Amino acid sequence: MIQATFDFARGQHPVSGRQPEVSVILPVFNGEAHIAEAIDSVLAQSMSDFELLVINDGSTDGTRAIVEAYAKRDARVVLFNMPNRGIVAALNFGLERAGAEFIARMDADDIALPRRFEMQLAILKRDPAVVACGGDLLKFGAVTGSLRFPRNDLMCKTALLFGTCFGHPAVMLRTRTLRDHHLRYDARYEFAEDYHLWSVLARHGKLCNIAQPLVRYRIHDAQIGRALREPQRRAHLAVALLNWSEAGAAIDPERLKAFLWPRLERLPDLFGYTQLFFRVAACAINLHGHRRIDYLRSAFRTFSRNAGRRILTGSST
């Protein structure tokens, strides 16, 4: 394990002797194809006061050699080599060693836009109540387009009834909140561990997303969401049901599953899906914690996204 670049016990930079502003956590497994692009995008940020913690989760390709070369050229890059234990263990390893006031997530196959850290820091410093700040994603690779996320705290928290309110590789977190409340990624919700963390984090402060893209998000078949779709959906559903329960209302798991991932193979199926929306909306009326209209709006956004996908693209799931 390589950890000589920073003194993690004190969280200090080896040259300046002070704590960096941001710890960037970048887990990687067999990422030789894209890891250099990801690291280059971090090193090219408009703010330079960060540590880049690369957690090599037992890669068997050339990942280690690529990152070691960067670490030799730039003291901000720190490589940890560990046995393969999976994404949750790698992420928690990074959280434990982050020495900065803020923690930024980064994936090994994505590209951070140049002002990402600068913009997120401005929001987190301006409002100490904000515990997590994300932004939109620009898709590229096998699929192009954009992924937009809820903007303000209320929209983020009501969206958690149905799914994540953040693009994981674009999030910046307040370290103290994680430490004060002993928050980590939970392996029981593997493949939706980020969704679960946001759901717990929402109890301790405000969430928000910047209304513009922060990361170019690469789409390819090796991603968890495509390669392991069913396990991911089971974990997602488990978190959503927890959020419904905490908000004070019960919903049938099969009904919620059908609402989140409808089979709309024929146009008449849209009629049945519309009926399902009204049943889910009736359950949402019984929720507490926010205004009923806000829960209904989140339900409608999920409905319109799924129905719109079927109408515009013909996709049935």
From TrEMBL:
One of its GO terms (molecular function) is glycosyltransferase activity. The keyword Transferase applies. Keywords: Glycosyltransferase, Transferase. Residues 23-135 form the Glycosyltransferase 2-like domain. InterPro entries: Glyco_trans_2-like, Glycosyltransf_2, Nucleotide-diphossugar_trans. Belongs to the glycosyltransferase 2 family. This is Glycosyl transferase family 2.
